[in-house]
Protein backbone atom coordinates (compact mmCIF):
# COMPACT_ATOMS: atom_id res chain seq x y z
CA UNK A 1 0.00 0.00 0.00
CA UNK A 2 2.85 2.30 0.89
CA UNK A 3 4.46 1.58 -2.47
CA UNK A 4 1.19 2.35 -4.30
CA UNK A 5 0.88 5.65 -2.44
CA UNK A 6 4.45 6.56 -3.29
CA UNK A 7 3.97 5.70 -6.98
CA UNK A 8 0.69 7.67 -7.17
CA UNK A 9 2.35 10.68 -5.58
CA UNK A 10 5.30 10.50 -7.97
CA UNK A 11 3.00 10.07 -10.98
CA UNK A 12 0.96 13.10 -9.87
CA UNK A 13 4.14 15.16 -9.53
CA UNK A 14 5.33 14.12 -12.99
CA UNK A 15 2.00 15.08 -14.57
CA UNK A 16 2.16 18.44 -12.78
CA UNK A 17 5.74 19.09 -13.94
CA UNK A 18 4.73 18.13 -17.50
CA UNK A 19 1.83 20.57 -17.27
CA UNK A 20 4.02 23.43 -16.06
CA UNK A 21 6.70 22.76 -18.71
CA UNK A 22 4.01 22.48 -21.39
CA UNK A 23 2.35 25.77 -20.46
CA UNK A 24 5.70 27.60 -20.25
CA UNK A 25 6.70 26.19 -23.64
CA UNK A 26 3.64 27.73 -25.30
CA UNK A 27 5.06 31.20 -24.58
CA UNK A 28 8.37 30.32 -26.23
CA UNK A 29 7.25 28.20 -29.19
CA UNK A 30 6.62 30.11 -32.45
CA UNK A 31 3.24 28.41 -32.85
CA UNK A 32 2.27 27.87 -29.23
CA UNK A 33 -1.41 27.34 -28.39
CA UNK A 34 -3.57 28.70 -25.59
CA UNK A 35 -4.78 26.58 -22.70
CA UNK A 36 -8.39 27.21 -23.69
CA UNK A 37 -9.68 25.41 -26.78
CA UNK A 38 -10.56 28.06 -29.35
CA UNK A 39 -13.41 27.36 -31.75
CA UNK A 40 -13.96 28.44 -35.36
CA UNK A 41 -17.39 28.58 -36.95
CA UNK A 42 -17.60 27.32 -40.51
CA UNK A 43 -20.65 27.75 -42.70
CA UNK A 44 -22.26 24.97 -44.63
CA UNK A 45 -25.34 25.78 -46.75
CA UNK A 46 -27.78 24.86 -43.99
CA UNK A 47 -25.95 25.43 -40.73
CA UNK A 48 -22.99 26.90 -38.90
CA UNK A 49 -20.62 24.27 -37.52
CA UNK A 50 -18.25 25.10 -34.68
CA UNK A 51 -15.04 23.09 -34.74
CA UNK A 52 -11.75 23.49 -32.86
CA UNK A 53 -9.62 26.17 -34.53
CA UNK A 54 -6.66 23.76 -34.55
CA UNK A 55 -8.63 21.51 -36.90
CA UNK A 56 -8.99 24.37 -39.37
CA UNK A 57 -5.56 25.84 -38.95
CA UNK A 58 -3.19 23.70 -36.84
CA UNK A 59 -0.18 25.93 -37.36
CA UNK A 60 -1.97 29.26 -37.19
CA UNK A 61 -1.00 30.35 -40.69
CA UNK A 62 -3.88 29.28 -42.95
CA UNK A 63 -5.31 31.98 -45.18
CA UNK A 64 -7.61 29.80 -47.27
CA UNK A 65 -11.27 30.42 -46.58
CA UNK A 66 -14.37 28.31 -46.48
CA UNK A 67 -16.62 28.31 -49.57
CA UNK A 68 -20.35 27.54 -49.34
CA UNK A 69 -22.25 25.10 -51.55
CA UNK A 70 -23.86 27.96 -53.45
CA UNK A 71 -20.54 29.60 -54.33
CA UNK A 72 -18.87 26.27 -55.06
CA UNK A 73 -21.68 25.39 -57.46
CA UNK A 74 -21.44 28.81 -59.12
CA UNK A 75 -17.69 28.31 -59.61
CA UNK A 76 -18.45 24.87 -61.04
CA UNK A 77 -20.98 26.27 -63.55
CA UNK A 78 -18.61 29.07 -64.55
CA UNK A 79 -15.81 26.49 -64.97
CA UNK A 80 -13.54 28.85 -63.10
CA UNK A 81 -12.46 26.45 -60.38
CA UNK A 82 -10.50 23.24 -60.17
CA UNK A 83 -12.09 20.87 -57.66
CA UNK A 84 -9.68 18.66 -55.74
CA UNK A 85 -11.08 15.63 -53.92
CA UNK A 86 -9.03 15.00 -50.76
CA UNK A 87 -10.54 11.56 -50.03
CA UNK A 88 -9.01 8.13 -50.65
CA UNK A 89 -8.95 6.88 -54.27
CA UNK A 90 -11.43 4.02 -53.61
CA UNK A 91 -14.02 6.44 -52.20
CA UNK A 92 -13.33 8.93 -54.98
CA UNK A 93 -13.85 6.21 -57.60
CA UNK A 94 -17.33 5.48 -56.26
CA UNK A 95 -18.49 9.06 -56.62
CA UNK A 96 -17.13 12.59 -56.75
CA UNK A 97 -17.96 16.09 -57.94
CA UNK A 98 -18.00 15.98 -61.73
CA UNK A 99 -14.60 16.93 -63.11
CA UNK A 100 -12.87 16.81 -59.72
CA UNK A 101 -9.32 15.49 -59.55
CA UNK A 102 -8.42 13.02 -56.80
CA UNK A 103 -5.64 14.29 -54.59
CA UNK A 104 -5.71 12.46 -51.23
CA UNK A 105 -4.58 14.80 -48.47
CA UNK A 106 -2.33 12.04 -47.08
CA UNK A 107 -0.55 11.52 -50.40
CA UNK A 108 0.13 15.16 -51.20
CA UNK A 109 3.81 14.60 -51.91
CA UNK A 110 2.95 12.06 -54.62
CA UNK A 111 1.00 14.72 -56.53
CA UNK A 112 3.68 17.41 -56.66
CA UNK A 113 4.43 16.86 -60.37
CA UNK A 114 0.79 17.39 -61.27
CA UNK A 115 0.43 20.43 -59.03
CA UNK A 116 3.59 22.02 -60.43
CA UNK A 117 1.91 22.07 -63.83
CA UNK A 118 -1.04 24.15 -62.58
CA UNK A 119 -1.47 27.92 -62.70
CA UNK A 120 -0.88 29.29 -59.19
CA UNK A 121 -3.57 31.95 -59.67
CA UNK A 122 -6.29 29.48 -60.56
CA UNK A 123 -9.17 29.11 -58.11
CA UNK A 124 -8.74 25.75 -56.39
CA UNK A 125 -11.48 24.21 -54.24
CA UNK A 126 -10.65 21.26 -52.00
CA UNK A 127 -13.31 19.05 -50.46
CA UNK A 128 -13.70 15.78 -48.58
CA UNK A 129 -16.74 13.92 -47.29
CA UNK A 130 -18.31 16.73 -45.31
CA UNK A 131 -18.31 18.49 -41.97
CA UNK A 132 -17.06 15.32 -40.23
CA UNK A 133 -13.69 15.29 -42.03
CA UNK A 134 -10.91 17.83 -42.31
CA UNK A 135 -8.82 16.40 -45.15
CA UNK A 136 -10.05 19.30 -47.32
CA UNK A 137 -8.55 21.76 -44.84
CA UNK A 138 -5.24 19.85 -44.68
CA UNK A 139 -5.10 19.85 -48.48
CA UNK A 140 -5.96 23.57 -48.69
CA UNK A 141 -3.19 24.31 -46.21
CA UNK A 142 -0.65 22.32 -48.27
CA UNK A 143 -1.76 24.00 -51.50
CA UNK A 144 -1.23 27.38 -49.91
CA UNK A 145 2.24 26.38 -48.81
CA UNK A 146 2.95 25.41 -52.40
CA UNK A 147 2.13 28.91 -53.55
CA UNK A 148 -1.47 28.70 -54.76
CA UNK A 149 -3.02 32.09 -54.20
CA UNK A 150 -6.74 31.33 -54.50
CA UNK A 151 -7.46 28.31 -52.33
CA UNK A 152 -10.89 27.57 -50.83
CA UNK A 153 -12.06 24.57 -48.87
CA UNK A 154 -15.61 23.41 -49.40
CA UNK A 155 -16.51 22.37 -45.87
CA UNK A 156 -19.96 20.97 -46.73
CA UNK A 157 -18.12 18.61 -49.08
CA UNK A 158 -19.40 15.60 -50.98
CA UNK A 159 -22.42 15.05 -48.72
CA UNK A 160 -23.77 18.54 -49.33
CA UNK A 161 -23.04 18.32 -53.07
CA UNK A 162 -24.98 15.06 -53.62
CA UNK A 163 -27.80 16.17 -51.33
CA UNK A 164 -28.24 19.16 -53.66
CA UNK A 165 -28.31 16.84 -56.67
CA UNK A 166 -25.47 18.60 -58.46
CA UNK A 167 -23.43 16.87 -61.22
CA UNK A 168 -21.26 13.97 -60.13
CA UNK A 169 -18.93 11.41 -61.65
CA UNK A 170 -17.77 7.95 -60.58
CA UNK A 171 -18.77 4.31 -60.78
CA UNK A 172 -21.92 4.56 -58.66
CA UNK A 173 -23.48 7.07 -61.03
CA UNK B 1 26.72 -26.38 -36.91
CA UNK B 2 27.60 -23.07 -38.53
CA UNK B 3 24.65 -21.44 -36.82
CA UNK B 4 25.86 -22.73 -33.45
CA UNK B 5 29.28 -21.30 -34.05
CA UNK B 6 27.84 -17.97 -35.08
CA UNK B 7 25.73 -17.92 -31.95
CA UNK B 8 28.77 -18.51 -29.78
CA UNK B 9 30.54 -15.64 -31.46
CA UNK B 10 27.88 -13.37 -30.04
CA UNK B 11 25.34 -13.38 -32.84
CA UNK B 12 21.89 -12.39 -31.52
CA UNK B 13 19.20 -15.01 -32.19
CA UNK B 14 15.95 -16.12 -30.53
CA UNK B 15 17.52 -19.48 -29.66
CA UNK B 16 20.38 -17.63 -28.06
CA UNK B 17 17.95 -15.67 -25.85
CA UNK B 18 16.22 -18.84 -24.62
CA UNK B 19 19.51 -20.68 -24.07
CA UNK B 20 20.78 -17.87 -21.91
CA UNK B 21 17.54 -16.90 -20.14
CA UNK B 22 18.77 -18.18 -16.77
CA UNK B 23 21.89 -16.13 -17.07
CA UNK B 24 21.32 -13.07 -14.82
CA UNK B 25 23.84 -10.93 -16.69
CA UNK B 26 22.12 -11.65 -19.98
CA UNK B 27 18.75 -10.74 -18.48
CA UNK B 28 20.15 -7.46 -17.19
CA UNK B 29 21.32 -6.53 -20.69
CA UNK B 30 17.89 -7.36 -22.12
CA UNK B 31 16.11 -5.26 -19.48
CA UNK B 32 18.52 -2.43 -20.18
CA UNK B 33 17.69 -2.60 -23.90
CA UNK B 34 13.94 -2.64 -23.13
CA UNK B 35 14.17 0.25 -20.68
CA UNK B 36 16.38 2.52 -22.78
CA UNK B 37 14.60 1.52 -26.00
CA UNK B 38 11.12 2.30 -24.67
CA UNK B 39 12.36 5.55 -23.12
CA UNK B 40 14.09 6.66 -26.33
CA UNK B 41 10.99 5.85 -28.37
CA UNK B 42 8.87 8.07 -26.12
CA UNK B 43 11.38 10.91 -26.27
CA UNK B 44 11.41 10.62 -30.07
CA UNK B 45 7.60 10.47 -30.24
CA UNK B 46 7.24 13.60 -28.13
CA UNK B 47 9.54 15.91 -30.10
CA UNK B 48 7.30 16.69 -33.07
CA UNK B 49 4.27 17.06 -30.78
CA UNK B 50 6.13 19.54 -28.57
CA UNK B 51 7.24 21.55 -31.61
CA UNK B 52 3.77 21.50 -33.25
CA UNK B 53 1.20 21.62 -30.44
CA UNK B 54 -1.55 22.82 -32.82
CA UNK B 55 -0.98 19.84 -35.11
CA UNK B 56 -1.06 17.49 -32.14
CA UNK B 57 -4.27 19.08 -30.81
CA UNK B 58 -5.74 18.52 -34.26
CA UNK B 59 -4.71 14.85 -34.11
CA UNK B 60 -6.41 14.46 -30.72
CA UNK B 61 -9.52 16.24 -32.07
CA UNK B 62 -9.69 13.68 -34.92
CA UNK B 63 -10.38 10.92 -32.40
CA UNK B 64 -13.52 12.80 -31.28
CA UNK B 65 -13.21 11.26 -27.81
CA UNK B 66 -12.00 14.07 -25.57
CA UNK B 67 -14.37 16.86 -24.48
CA UNK B 68 -13.42 19.94 -26.52
CA UNK B 69 -12.55 22.15 -23.50
CA UNK B 70 -9.80 19.64 -22.60
CA UNK B 71 -8.34 19.46 -26.12
CA UNK B 72 -5.58 22.06 -25.81
CA UNK B 73 -4.80 21.03 -22.24
CA UNK B 74 -4.16 17.44 -23.36
CA UNK B 75 -2.09 18.61 -26.35
CA UNK B 76 0.03 20.73 -24.03
CA UNK B 77 0.57 18.18 -21.24
CA UNK B 78 0.86 14.82 -23.07
CA UNK B 79 4.04 15.44 -25.13
CA UNK B 80 5.85 16.82 -22.09
CA UNK B 81 4.73 13.84 -20.03
CA UNK B 82 6.06 11.58 -22.78
CA UNK B 83 9.48 13.25 -22.93
CA UNK B 84 9.74 13.42 -19.14
CA UNK B 85 8.84 9.75 -18.66
CA UNK B 86 11.07 8.74 -21.57
CA UNK B 87 14.08 10.52 -20.09
CA UNK B 88 13.45 9.15 -16.59
CA UNK B 89 13.28 5.66 -18.05
CA UNK B 90 16.53 6.16 -19.99
CA UNK B 91 18.37 7.53 -16.95
CA UNK B 92 16.75 4.98 -14.62
CA UNK B 93 15.55 7.60 -12.17
CA UNK B 94 11.98 7.10 -10.82
CA UNK B 95 11.89 4.57 -13.63
CA UNK B 96 9.05 2.48 -12.20
CA UNK B 97 6.69 5.46 -12.03
CA UNK B 98 7.74 6.58 -15.51
CA UNK B 99 7.16 3.09 -16.86
CA UNK B 100 3.69 2.87 -15.26
CA UNK B 101 2.75 6.22 -16.81
CA UNK B 102 4.10 5.12 -20.20
CA UNK B 103 2.18 1.84 -19.98
CA UNK B 104 -1.01 3.70 -19.02
CA UNK B 105 -0.58 6.13 -21.92
CA UNK B 106 -0.04 3.24 -24.32
CA UNK B 107 -3.21 1.51 -23.12
CA UNK B 108 -5.25 4.73 -23.48
CA UNK B 109 -3.80 5.41 -26.98
CA UNK B 110 -4.54 1.82 -28.09
CA UNK B 111 -8.13 1.99 -26.82
CA UNK B 112 -8.59 5.32 -28.61
CA UNK B 113 -7.32 3.80 -31.88
CA UNK B 114 -9.58 0.74 -31.48
CA UNK B 115 -12.65 2.90 -30.79
CA UNK B 116 -11.87 5.08 -33.82
CA UNK B 117 -11.39 2.00 -36.01
CA UNK B 118 -14.75 0.65 -34.83
CA UNK B 119 -16.32 3.98 -35.79
CA UNK B 120 -14.80 3.66 -39.27
CA UNK B 121 -12.58 6.73 -38.93
CA UNK B 122 -9.33 6.98 -40.89
CA UNK B 123 -6.73 9.60 -40.03
CA UNK B 124 -3.15 10.09 -38.90
CA UNK B 125 -2.84 8.58 -35.42
CA UNK B 126 -0.64 11.43 -34.19
CA UNK B 127 1.76 8.89 -32.72
CA UNK B 128 5.04 10.18 -34.18
CA UNK B 129 5.65 12.85 -36.85
CA UNK B 130 2.32 14.57 -37.48
CA UNK B 131 2.52 14.58 -41.27
CA UNK B 132 3.63 10.99 -41.64
CA UNK B 133 0.88 9.32 -43.69
CA UNK B 134 2.21 5.86 -42.80
CA UNK B 135 1.04 6.57 -39.26
CA UNK B 136 -2.66 6.26 -40.04
CA UNK B 137 -4.70 4.39 -37.46
CA UNK B 138 -5.20 0.68 -38.14
CA UNK B 139 -4.45 -2.82 -36.95
CA UNK B 140 -0.73 -2.30 -37.56
CA UNK B 141 -0.69 0.58 -35.08
CA UNK B 142 -2.63 -1.49 -32.52
CA UNK B 143 -0.16 -4.39 -32.84
CA UNK B 144 2.77 -1.96 -32.50
CA UNK B 145 1.27 -0.56 -29.33
CA UNK B 146 0.56 -4.04 -27.93
CA UNK B 147 4.25 -4.93 -28.38
CA UNK B 148 5.20 -1.79 -26.46
CA UNK B 149 2.65 -2.56 -23.73
CA UNK B 150 4.23 -6.03 -23.35
CA UNK B 151 7.67 -4.40 -22.97
CA UNK B 152 6.22 -2.06 -20.36
CA UNK B 153 4.65 -4.98 -18.44
CA UNK B 154 7.95 -6.93 -18.55
CA UNK B 155 9.73 -3.87 -17.12
CA UNK B 156 7.08 -3.42 -14.40
CA UNK B 157 7.52 -7.06 -13.32
CA UNK B 158 11.27 -6.49 -13.20
CA UNK B 159 10.95 -3.29 -11.13
CA UNK B 160 8.57 -5.07 -8.77
CA UNK B 161 10.99 -7.96 -8.29
CA UNK B 162 13.89 -5.59 -7.67
CA UNK B 163 11.85 -3.61 -5.14
CA UNK B 164 10.85 -6.78 -3.28
CA UNK B 165 14.48 -7.96 -3.24
CA UNK B 166 15.49 -4.59 -1.80
CA UNK B 167 12.84 -4.79 0.94
CA UNK B 168 14.02 -8.28 1.91
Quickly describe the structure.
With 173 residues, chain A is α/β, with parallel strands linked by helices. Chain A has helices at 2-28, 53-56, 69-77, 89-94, 112-116, 135-145, 157-163, and strands spanning 39-43, 48-52, 65-66, 81-85, 96-97, 101-102, 123-127, 150-154, 168-169.
- Total number of strands of chain B: 0
Please state the CA-atom Rg of chain B, rounded to the nearest Å.
Answer: 19 Å
Tell me which CATH architecture of the largest domain in chain A applies here. Answer: 3-Layer(aba) Sandwich
CATH topology descriptor of the largest domain in chain A:
Oxidized Rhodanese, domain 1
Q: How do the SSEs of chain B run, as a string of H and E?
A: HHHHHHH
Order of helices and strands of chain A: HEEHEHEHEEHEHEHE
The end-to-end distance of chain B, rounded to whole angstroms, is 45 Å
Major sheet characteristics of chain B:
none
Query: What percent of residues of chain A adopt helix (DSSP H or I)?
Result: 25-40%
Oligomer: heterodimer
Number of helices, counting only DSSP H or I runs of 4 residues or more of chain B: 7
Sheet with the most strands, sense and barrel status of chain A: 5 strands, parallel
Amino acid sequence: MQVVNKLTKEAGSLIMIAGILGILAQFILPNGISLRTEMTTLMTESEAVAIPSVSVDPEGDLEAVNITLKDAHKAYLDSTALFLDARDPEIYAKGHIAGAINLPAGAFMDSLDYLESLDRDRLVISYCDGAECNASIDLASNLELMGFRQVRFFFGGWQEWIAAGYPTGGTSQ
Amino acid sequence: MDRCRLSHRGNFSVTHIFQNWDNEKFKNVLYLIFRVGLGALFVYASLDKIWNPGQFANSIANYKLLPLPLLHLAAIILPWLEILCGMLLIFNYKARTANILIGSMLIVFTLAILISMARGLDFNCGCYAQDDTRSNIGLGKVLNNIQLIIVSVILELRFRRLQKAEQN
